[in-house]
Design goal:
One of its GO terms (biological process) is response to oxidative stress. The protein is an alpha+beta fold. Helix content is 32%, strand content 8%. It folds into 2 domains: 7-46, no CATH class; 48-139, no CATH class. The chain has a 3-stranded antiparallel beta sheet with strand order 1-2-3, sandwiched between helices.
Length: 156
């Protein structure tokens, strides 16, 4: 909480009160009042440094005056539906402290013929992407359970 207040005061000192209010509007703080997670991220962004933006529009931040392990984070481009699979691999390494090179630096080193393009995981998004086992009632190719015969003990 102290770092948030320190960040707010820093921005007010740099831009003035009018500039601070304009900054709040431009960054979308007024639109995120109904989403608690987004509001918490936006408040955490005050005083942070924007490190980069990936090809999907996700923004990556760093704030070095907070606890190690919590000083790098992402603000997802899709505000209504977000999950960790929306982070491409080149930024995943930076976000989880595997490397200090940002995603933009790693993209320059990546060969052009390397693998396939990153896509987010759509598991749980509509019936087309949900896996149902063969015995599940919603699976169109259900197993035929009639071929199994119940065991009958021999009468002695």
């Amino acid at each position: 909480m102290v770092s948030v207040v320190r960040g707010v005061l820093k921005v007010i000192n740099e831009k003035g009160v009018g500039g601070f209010i304009k900054h709040l509007r431009e960054e979308g703080y007024t639109k995120c009042l109904l989403d608690g997670n987004l509001l918490q991220t936006k408040i955490h962004n005050i005083g942070a440094t924007l490190i980069g933006v990936d090809k999907f529009g996700n923004q990556y931040y760093e704030k070095l005056d907070v606890q190690y392990g919590r000083h790098r984070w992402v603000e997802y481009a899709e505000k209504g539906r977000y999950n960790a699979s929306q982070v491409p691999p080149e930024w995943h390494g930076w976000l989880h402290y595997v490397t200090d090179h940002t995603g933009d630096e790693l993209l320059m080193l990546k060969p052009k013929r390397y693998g396939v393009e990153h896509r987010e995981n759509f598991s749980g998004e509509g019936d087309a992407y949900i896996y149902h086992s063969k015995g599940h009632a919603l699976n169109p190719g259900q197993m035929d359970w009639t071929r199994y015969q119940p065991w009958q003990p021999a009468k002695s």
